[in-house]
Amino acid sequence: MKKSSSANKAEWGSLQLLYKLYNALAQEFSIDLSPCDELQDGEKTATRKAVGAAREWFAAADERIQVHQLRQFLQTSRLADEAGLRAALGYALHKPEHSEADRDKIDFLSVQFFSVCAPSLLEDNDLTFQFVAKTLEPVLGTRELVALKSLEGLDDVVQKAETCHSLRELYASGVIEKGRELKQGAAQNYFEPAALVSFTRFNFLMRRCFFRAMHRDLNAILDGLRELEQRGVAALDCRGAELSEEEPVGRLRIICQSWKAMFQAEYSFGQPLRMLVDLRAAVDTVLAAGSKETSPKAGEPDGPPRAMAAAASGDSDGSTQANESESNHDTQK
């Protein structure tokens, strides 16, 4: 069955919008993409041959663009509005074949699109399967969908995540691994509309869990820095958090305040989650040690007391490392 002229025009308009987005992304990450003459001309309508050439161009571009690059770009670019995300998600969903990389891109694009379209004051209890399905209709189409019993385990993962009160607890709880396992287990069924709705809902709820844990960590760090200043601690050894050996407490406070501003939007990720975990470990270590252990040793010149953060965060390369593929779903990750 042939597409109507209006459908062809809509697809061509979407491809043109996506072409701008891909080229902006390529420029940001210094990816050398050859131009697509058919899309470069900006024609309002296109022949079947032009559409075919455009699809081939996007297929080649997808091979060059990594998931983490797409994720980072779409969290900061003005092109990542509702129309841009709809174009990107629609294109990814309608590819004739899907790879694991396609799944990861769709995993991010679907929750990012939902986040942009959903009400800002949406309560967790209102985040039903049907509500998410309705919000995704612009890309999934209007149809009756029913939640799959095979994906009921997603709710168990969210419930476990909700019991965690810090990022360190979330990383150690195994929820990231379990969420990834369920996605991989879905195989090609992942791309079915009902499954996409369930995973989008899961990703959004997991993002909120990470968002809340981040703010708890930030508040705990700021409270801890205040207490350390009262004890006379002027600097901390924050090498475990990729900062200096004698990081001034005042500068750490400024860093945390800047992170708070960065973390205002629940759907904005890609931030230094591991640094946040390790910085809290550094502060907690000094607080636990007390003023006696942070005083200069006999024979040492007077100077700012320090805490050995590395000892407290020695497992950060494992359980606390923020993996980009989760930061979207599970931070959604």
Q: In words, what does this structure look like?
A:
- The protein is mainly α and 333 residues long.
- The protein has a domain at 212-321.
- The protein is built from 16 helices and two strands.
- It has helices spanning 5-28, 37-40, 48-64, 67-74, 82-93, 100-117, 129-135, 137-140, 153-162, 167-173, 175-186, 193-231, 249-262, 273-294, 309-312, 324-329, and strands spanning 235-236, 247-248.
- It has a two-stranded antiparallel ribbon.
- α5 packs antiparallel against α6 and α7 crosses α12.
- It is globular, with a radius of gyration of 23 Å.
- The two termini are 40 Å apart.
- 38% of the residues are buried.
- Residues 267-271 and 291-333 have low confidence and may be disordered.
- Topology as H/E string? HHHHHHHHHHHHEEHHHH
Number of strands: 2
Q: What kind of sheet is the major sheet? A: 2 strands, antiparallel
Shape: globular
Helix content: 55-70%
Instruction: Estimate the mean pLDDT confidence.
Output: 81
Instruction: Tell me the strand order in the biggest sheet.
Output: 1-2
**Helix segment count?**
16
Q: Termini distance?
A: 40 Å
Alpha carbon gyration radius: 23 Å
Backbone structural class: mainly alpha
Kindly estimate the percentage of residues that lie in beta strands according to DSSP: under 5%
Which regions have little confidence, pLDDT < 50, spanning 5+ residues?
A: 267-271, 291-333
Ordered list of secondary-structure elements with their pairings:
Elements: H1 5-28, H2 37-40, H3 48-64, H4 67-74, H5 82-93, H6 100-117, H7 129-135, H8 137-140, H9 153-162, H10 167-173, H11 175-186, H12 193-231, E1 235-236, E2 247-248, H13 249-262, H14 273-294, H15 309-312, H16 324-329
Antiparallel strand pairs: 1-2
